[in-house]
From TrEMBL:
UniProt keyword Hydrolase, yes or no: yes
Source species of the chain: Trichoderma citrinoviride
PROSITE patterns, A to Z: NUDIX
Protein name according to UniProt: NAD(+) diphosphatase
CDD domains for this protein: NUDIX_NADH_pyrophosphatase_Nudt13 (cd03429)
GO biological process: NAD+ catabolic process; NADP+ catabolic process
Chain ranges of the Nudix hydrolase domain: 1-122
One Gene Ontology CC term in the entry: peroxisome
UniProt catalytic activity: a 5'-end NAD(+)-phospho-ribonucleoside in mRNA + H2O = a 5'-end phospho-adenosine-phospho-ribonucleoside in mRNA + beta-nicotinamide D-ribonucleotide + 2 H(+)
PANTHER family: NAD-CAPPED RNA HYDROLASE NUDT12 (PTHR42904:SF6), NUDIX HYDROLASE, NUDC SUBFAMILY (PTHR42904)
Cofactor: Mg(2+); Zn(2+)
Recorded family membership: Belongs to the Nudix hydrolase family. NudC subfamily.
Amino acid sequence: MIVAVVSADGQRMLLGRQSRWPPKWHSTLAGFIEPGESIEDSVRREVWEEAGVRVGRVIIQSSQPWPYPSSLMIGAIAQALPDGEAISLLDKELEAAAWFTFDEVRDALVNGTSALGDPVPEGYQGRLCVPPRQAIAHQLMQAVVDGYLDLTPKM
């Protein structure tokens, strides 16, 4: 599963980065569903393990087939609990995690996209680079900044 985590006030997005990624490159958090675990519980567990952030509401937003190893990536959007936003890298899977404003994410989605391993786009001055448009992480970030997560569930 892969998840875009939104702050309790709905104004910021939690993104993480691994040490092997290029400078400025961040993405949504991701992990595996354990046997017997619901998608929602796996989202809560993975976000807690990777970033120390506690999540309440989880919405399954999309999916993306992965031919190898015959897997299905499940995309979710989650909202942090009001008292659960403090970042603590518990399992050291990430080098860093940070809350970014929606304006920063919007700018990166338009001007700061690059494939993993590619340099920062020429002339881009933002502090955040994100995966390219075809990546489910990009699609989740776009859905969030476009207002997908609001008080009315989408049907």
